[in-house]
Design a protein that fits this description.
296 residues, alpha/beta, D-Maltodextrin-Binding Protein, domain 2, Alpha-Beta Plaits, 3 domains, 6-stranded mixed beta sheet, 5-stranded mixed beta sheet, 9 helices, 15 strands, 28% helix, binds phosphoribosyl ATP, binds zinc ion
């Protein structure tokens, strides 16, 4: 569909729950995205990269066929597509931490659910027939899967199916329809997906460069820079408490013999509890700062 111009293509959702997060992530990775009039694509000013704005359901196909070398899509959409494929034609390069939800089987509140065997012989409405069939097969249950493209939560009320299997984030939609979740078929979040088709050396280098930048953004989202002061005898214990920190920098404090400043990048979340432990170990003047950019 798109001639190989040497430019890299990234498929992102045009509009919907993942659209803004996807653009923000690429911007944070340093891509200057032109806001042109073209609704289908946008050029990136500072790299030979084009974004393609599409329905999320089309993203797995685009990446599998290498029309786009990368895509950002929910794991649910990707795995549903993959459920119908003999061989995977893409790799999940990184989970992205947004668009979190779970594909769940839900039953009417009044139903006495006793485990997957309660689904045997029943009708279950879903937009994810591939994933639901896989779940049923894994549990050795035979049930009929009714495919719906939307408004799945209405199926029981409309008499289309007794049960549903739908995406849930807050659970409010299920609750409003008198349904309760009973099984989790898949935990999902947006992922960066990369084609398995071989790329030209120039494109492969660009793809690796882009991936490293995205990895850097993801790492900074969790990471914090910690600074604290501590007496020499506490340094060992403090180094053990710092979450996900490699060798911290230890600098003598001017005019305070036996006291040091400790600086460290922590690659895991830093909780209040961690700060309390640091203080108990002898640390003082503890500062936790966000990191703007990082290259691993
Ligand atoms: O137009 P296009 O086809 O691109 O978009 P779409 O309408 O198919 O998808 P969209 O934008 O609704 O969702 C895109 C992706 O967001 C999904 O594939 C999921 O990976 C992720 N996501 C995260 C969700 C939800 N949370 C979610 N809550 N997708 C859908 N929902 C729906 C769910 O289907 C149900 O109707 O929200 C309702 C439930 O929400 P709660 O909060 O009441 O539980
Ligand atoms: Zn869709």
């Amino acid at each position: 569909m798109f001639a190989d111009t040497g430019r890299l293509h990234i498929a992102v959702q045009k509009s919907g729950r993942l659209a803004q997060y996807s653009r923000d992530l690429l911007r944070d990775a340093g891509l200057r995205i032109q806001n042109g009039k073209n609704e289908l694509t946008a050029r990136v000013d500072n790299f030979p990269i084009d974004l393609m704005f599409v329905r999320d359901d089309d993203i797995p196909t685009f990446v599998a066929d290498a029309v786009c070398e990368f895509g950002i899509v929910g794991r649910n959409v990707l795995e549903e597509f993959g459920a119908g494929e003999a061989e995977p034609r893409f790799d999940v390069a990184a989970p992205l931490g947004f668009g979190r939800c779970a594909l769940k089987v839900a039953v009417p509140e009044s139903f006495d659910y006793r485990g997957p065997e309660s689904l045997a012989g029943e009708r279950i409405a879903t937009s994810y027939p591939g994933l639901l069939r896989r779940f049923l097969a894994d549990h050795g249950v035979e049930a009929s899967v009714v495919k719906m493209s939307g408004a799945v939560e209405l199926a029981p009320r409309l008499g289309i199916a007794r049960f549903v299997c739908d995406l849930v984030s807050t659970g409010a939609t299920l609750e409003a329809n008198g349904l309760v979740p009973v099984e989790t078929v898949l935990e999902s979040e947006a992922v960066l997906v990369r084609t398995r088709r071989p790329l030209s050396p120039a494109k492969a280098e660009l793809a690796d460069n882009l991936f490293r930048r995205i990895e850097g953004v993801l790492a900074t989202q969790e990471s914090k820079y910690i600074m604290l002061n501590a007496p020499e005898e506490a340094l060992g214990e403090i180094a053990d408490i710092l979450p996900g920190a490699e060798a911290p920098t230890v600098i003598p404090l001017a005019g305070r013999p036996g006291h040091y400043a400790v600086h460290a990048v922590c690659q895991e979340s830093v909780f209040w509890e961690t700060l309390q432990k640091l203080k108990a170990a002898g640390a003082s003047a503890i500062l936790v700062m966000p990191i703007e950019k990082m290259m691993l």
